[in-house]
Amino acid sequence: QLQLVESGGGLVQPGGSLRLSCTASGFTMDYYAIGWFRQAPGKEREGVSCISGSGGSTMYADSVKGRFTISRDNAKNTVYLQINSLKPEDTAVYYCARAFGAPWCRSLGQSSYDYWGQGTQVTVSS
Q: What is the mean pLDDT of residues 20-38?
Protein backbone atom coordinates (compact mmCIF):
# COMPACT_ATOMS: atom_id res chain seq x y z
CA GLN A 1 0.00 0.00 0.00
CA LEU A 2 1.44 3.34 -1.07
CA GLN A 3 1.79 5.67 1.87
CA LEU A 4 3.48 8.93 2.83
CA VAL A 5 3.72 9.82 6.50
CA GLU A 6 4.87 13.19 7.78
CA SER A 7 6.31 13.77 11.24
CA GLY A 8 8.33 16.30 13.18
CA GLY A 9 5.85 19.12 13.51
CA GLY A 10 5.12 20.89 16.75
CA LEU A 11 4.99 24.16 18.61
CA VAL A 12 8.11 26.28 18.31
CA GLN A 13 9.03 29.84 19.20
CA PRO A 14 9.82 32.41 16.52
CA GLY A 15 13.41 32.07 15.41
CA GLY A 16 13.48 28.38 16.21
CA SER A 17 14.03 25.41 13.94
CA LEU A 18 12.29 22.18 13.05
CA ARG A 19 13.08 19.22 10.85
CA LEU A 20 10.12 17.59 9.22
CA SER A 21 10.29 14.04 7.89
CA CYS A 22 8.32 12.34 5.16
CA THR A 23 8.62 8.58 5.19
CA ALA A 24 7.37 6.64 2.19
CA SER A 25 6.30 3.05 1.71
CA GLY A 26 4.76 1.00 -1.06
CA PHE A 27 6.85 2.38 -3.93
CA THR A 28 10.46 2.81 -4.98
CA MET A 29 11.23 6.23 -3.65
CA ASP A 30 14.31 6.83 -5.83
CA TYR A 31 12.09 6.92 -8.92
CA TYR A 32 10.11 9.94 -7.78
CA ALA A 33 10.61 13.54 -6.86
CA ILE A 34 8.99 14.50 -3.57
CA GLY A 35 7.50 17.86 -2.73
CA TRP A 36 6.61 19.67 0.45
CA PHE A 37 3.52 21.84 0.69
CA ARG A 38 1.85 23.82 3.43
CA GLN A 39 -1.60 25.12 4.14
CA ALA A 40 -2.17 27.90 6.61
CA PRO A 41 -5.59 28.50 8.15
CA GLY A 42 -7.89 30.17 5.66
CA LYS A 43 -5.35 29.97 2.85
CA GLU A 44 -4.78 27.76 -0.14
CA ARG A 45 -2.20 25.02 -0.07
CA GLU A 46 1.13 26.22 -1.46
CA GLY A 47 4.18 24.36 -2.64
CA VAL A 48 7.34 25.21 -0.74
CA SER A 49 9.99 22.81 -1.98
CA CYS A 50 10.75 19.78 -4.11
CA ILE A 51 13.65 17.39 -4.44
CA SER A 52 14.44 15.09 -7.34
CA GLY A 53 14.58 11.33 -6.97
CA SER A 54 18.35 11.28 -6.79
CA GLY A 55 18.48 14.31 -4.51
CA GLY A 56 20.65 16.13 -7.01
CA SER A 57 18.14 18.84 -7.85
CA THR A 58 15.97 20.97 -5.61
CA MET A 59 13.35 23.66 -6.02
CA TYR A 60 12.12 26.26 -3.52
CA ALA A 61 9.36 28.81 -3.38
CA ASP A 62 10.71 32.35 -3.19
CA SER A 63 9.01 32.82 0.17
CA VAL A 64 11.17 30.17 1.85
CA LYS A 65 14.51 30.40 0.06
CA GLY A 66 17.38 30.70 2.47
CA ARG A 67 15.40 29.31 5.42
CA PHE A 68 14.16 25.94 4.19
CA THR A 69 16.39 23.08 3.11
CA ILE A 70 15.09 19.90 1.56
CA SER A 71 17.08 16.67 1.53
CA ARG A 72 16.48 12.96 1.22
CA ASP A 73 17.87 9.62 2.30
CA ASN A 74 16.59 7.03 -0.13
CA ALA A 75 18.06 4.22 1.94
CA LYS A 76 15.63 5.25 4.67
CA ASN A 77 12.80 6.10 2.25
CA THR A 78 12.68 9.51 3.86
CA VAL A 79 12.66 13.12 2.69
CA TYR A 80 13.41 15.90 5.14
CA LEU A 81 12.53 19.57 5.33
CA GLN A 82 14.76 21.60 7.61
CA ILE A 83 13.09 24.87 8.59
CA ASN A 84 15.18 27.56 10.25
CA SER A 85 14.41 31.04 11.55
CA LEU A 86 10.77 30.14 11.91
CA LYS A 87 8.22 32.93 11.68
CA PRO A 88 4.61 33.06 12.83
CA GLU A 89 3.57 33.10 9.18
CA ASP A 90 5.13 29.65 8.77
CA THR A 91 2.32 28.27 10.91
CA ALA A 92 0.54 25.71 8.76
CA VAL A 93 -0.10 22.05 8.18
CA TYR A 94 2.83 20.72 6.18
CA TYR A 95 2.30 17.94 3.66
CA CYS A 96 4.61 15.88 1.52
CA ALA A 97 3.57 14.50 -1.84
CA ARG A 98 4.93 12.29 -4.58
CA ALA A 99 5.55 13.86 -7.97
CA PHE A 100 3.34 12.42 -10.66
CA GLY A 101 5.32 9.90 -12.67
CA ALA A 102 8.67 11.65 -12.62
CA PRO A 103 11.99 11.62 -10.78
CA TRP A 104 12.42 15.36 -11.30
CA CYS A 105 10.64 18.44 -10.01
CA ARG A 106 8.39 19.83 -12.73
CA SER A 107 6.84 22.49 -10.56
CA LEU A 108 5.46 23.27 -7.10
CA GLY A 109 1.91 23.17 -8.37
CA GLN A 110 -0.37 20.63 -6.73
CA SER A 111 -1.43 19.12 -10.04
CA SER A 112 2.10 17.76 -10.51
CA TYR A 113 1.74 15.48 -7.47
CA ASP A 114 -0.41 12.40 -7.10
CA TYR A 115 -0.09 10.90 -3.61
CA TRP A 116 -0.21 12.92 -0.42
CA GLY A 117 0.45 12.39 3.24
CA GLN A 118 -1.92 13.41 6.02
CA GLY A 119 0.16 16.36 7.14
CA THR A 120 1.95 17.51 10.27
CA GLN A 121 1.08 20.70 12.15
CA VAL A 122 3.71 23.38 12.62
CA THR A 123 2.80 26.22 14.96
CA VAL A 124 5.14 29.15 15.47
CA SER A 125 4.20 31.20 18.49
CA SER A 126 5.74 32.75 21.57
A: 95
